[in-house]
Write a structure and sequence with these properties.
This protein has about 600 residues and is α/β, with parallel strands linked by helices. It contains 24 helices and 16 strands. About 45% of the residues lie in helices and about 15% in strands. The strands form 4 sheets. It has a 7-stranded parallel sheet.
Length: about 600
């Protein structure tokens, strides 16, 4: 079986990294990166190009790399890559996960201090051996220590994007078993937290042992950690633990509420029950002044909705159960209908092969149209993001022409789908943008984001964001803190001050739906909503499959209490166009 185009591109990028760690000529390393980008930009199957001996015609792929690609396609392996990996201590590659450590610094650590593992690096930092090295210093040494500690703390944590497909696969299997009456995800996964620990599952059955045996035998399970009469814990591929509890069907709604949490939400709910002469726990709601499991005292409830009703509350969706005011809201009346991911009609922040994306605009249009979306923004990086092949002004003008031609073709076909032109413009250290206003005014969508100078103070960061929000040609502030979940913390920002500025200027704020970002954080969306600031849920897509981030982003929006009316990209195309142009006209 031949290796896919994307797999080969990833291998070429890995080779470039290994060559940098080895200290090879940077031009050699860059050649592999360029070849990877050229492969990703191919609009036809790689097998076909090779079979027709046209690989040499692909710009950016030299003769030596051509041979390596052919070897990978025909054999599925590459001797050069395997030898390179074998000659590189694996610990050096792991060090790349530490923020602030690139291949050059890692090579210097290896050459100067013979460091080959993360543990050796941490010890060297603690002994003060790293700071004296050229290009390091006390601040870098401290940042390395902090990064190692953060990496260790995150070891048992996982992105929801990794956990969700595993959960859905297991639940699908459980639903197929005749002994399972009901089943559901629970815990932080059901509440759609951005980072989760274990995958908590719950099922009801009259035959718990049979269900637990079935669960423990599922594909993708590396080992069974523990298995008792009502609970089993297993280790899944990727190092995620999953726990399944099996209860009676009468207990199911109470157990589902309890194990969904959050802990803080549960405390408030239990106290509310006590105030009504009841006891609420994982086994039921009981007419009792003391803790009990007496079935004679049970207040029967078939669903979670009924439990809320018995406690004089309207139903609270799982995503909102964080003890952040949802109980007070549920006392007043039915909660607003939260956003559904199917309400979303497109994403306004995405990348193509013009910068660091993996597909050409024409491919993107075809794929997003087939998904049933109404529009898709092509907003590639601006020139300051040189590491992402950012565009200068002439290249943006060329891209506008290409997208115009694609949209003309779509119109001739009678389809209503359209690509939107745009750019993700860098906010520079001094708060200025790296594209002139006379270009920005010609774009459908302008997103302004910080990609540099993360070390500024909270005051400085807040000032540059507020300044950009006042630019009449900027529609959206992108990923507000620049955080990368489980990798790096965001830079410091006064969220409320930025939100106030956006409320004043009519600027929208992005909920970046990349599972590494989910930025702006869900905790600030209720405040933004109260100020009338609109949300834009964007995929920040670099591949076609990243369109699936819309679903993840909608879950985070629900945590922030957002409805369809609060989110810009639920609008149909023409209404969106009016909103985009209207913001400019009212702020000009």
């Amino acid at each position: 079986m031949s290796t896919s185009k994307d797999e080969i591109a990833n291998i070429l990028v890995n080779i470039a990294t290994l060559l940098e760690l080895k200290g090879e000529n940077p031009f050699k390393s860059r050649a592999y990166t360029n070849a990877a980008r050229a492969l990703e930009g191919l609009s036809e199957p790689l097998d076909k190009v090779i079979a027709e001996e046209r690989l040499a015609e692909v710009k950016g792929i030299g003769e030596s790399i051509q041979k390596k690609i052919c070897e990978l396609v025909t054999t599925g392996k590459l001797t050069y890559y395997e030898d390179l990996k074998a000659a590189t201590p694996p610990g050096l590659v792991l060090m790349l996960e530490i923020p602030g450590l690139g291949p050059k610094k890692i090579k210097a650590l290896h050459d100067e201090l013979r460091i080959e593992t993360v543990e050796q690096l941490e010890q060297a930092c603690k002994e003060g051996k790293v700071a004296p090295l050229k290009g390091f210093g006390e601040k870098t040494q401290k940042n390395i220590c902090d990064g190692i500690e953060r990496r260790r703390a995150y070891a048992a944590k996982h992105l929801i994007s990794d956990a969700m497909p595993l959960s859905e696969s297991l639940l699908e299997a459980l639903r197929s078993h005749p002994a399972v009456i009901r089943c559901s995800a629970a815990g932080s996964l059901r509440r759609h937290r951005e980072i989760i620990g274990d995958v908590d599952l719950l099922a009801s059955s009259k035959k718990p042992a049979e269900v637990l045996d079935f669960f423990a035998s599922q594909p993708g399970i590396i080992s069974v950690v523990a298995k008792g009469e009502t609970k089993a814990s297993v280790l899944l591929e990727g190092g995620i633990q999953s726990d399944l509890r099996v209860v009676s069907d009468a207990e199911f709604p109470f157990a589902l509420m309890y194990f969904t949490g959050s802990k803080e939400h549960n405390i408030v709910m239990r106290q509310r029950a006590i105030e009504r002469g009841l006891r609420l726990n994982e086994y039921g709601l009981f007419r009792s002044k003391v803790e009990t499991r007496d079935p004679k005292l049970l207040v029967a409830c078939k669903t979670e909705e009924e439990i809320f009703e018995k406690l004089d509350l309207h139903y609270v969706e799982p995503e909102m159960r964080e003890d952040m005011g949802e109980i007070a809201l549920a006392e007043k009346g039915p909660l607003p209908r939260l956003l559904e991911w199917t309400d979303l009609k497109g994403s306004l922040h995405n990348h193509s092969t013009w910068s660091d994306g993996h597909q050409r605009p024409e491919e993107i249009a075809k794929s997003m149209r087939e998904l049933g979306l109404a529009y898709w923004g092509v907003t590639d990086h601006s020139k300051s993001s040189f590491q992402a092949n950012g565009l200068d002004v002439p290249r943006v003008r060329q891209q506008l022409q290409e997208i115009r031609q694609i949209n003309d073709s779509l119109a001739k076909e009678g389809t209503e789908f359209r690509l939107l032109t745009g750019a993700e413009v860098d906010i520079l250290k001094d708060g200025k943008l790296d594209f002139p206003d006379d270009l920005l005014k010609d774009l459908d969508v302008v997103i302004a984001s910080v990609h540099q100078s993360f070390g500024l103070t909270e005051v400085e960061n807040t000032k540059r964001l507020i300044g950009v929000a006042r630019n009449p040609y900027v529609h959206i502030l992108g990923h507000l803190t620049g955080r990368l979940l489980l990798e790096r913390d965001g830079y410091k920002v006064d969220h409320r001050a930025v939100i106030d500025a956006c409320a004043e200027t009519g600027t929208w704020i992005e909920l970046n739906a990349s599972p590494y970002r989910f930025d702006m954080d869900w905790r600030f969306w209720p405040f933004a909503k109260s100020k009338g600031v609109k949300c834009v849920i964007n995929c920040d897509a670099h591949r076609l499959e990243h369109a699936g981030f819309l679903r993840l982003g909608a879950g985070i929006a629900r945590k922030g209490w957002l409805t369809k009316e609060d989110v810009v990209n639920t609008m149909p195309l023409e209404k969106l166009r009016k909103a985009l142009s209207g913001k400019r006209s009212c702020r000009a």
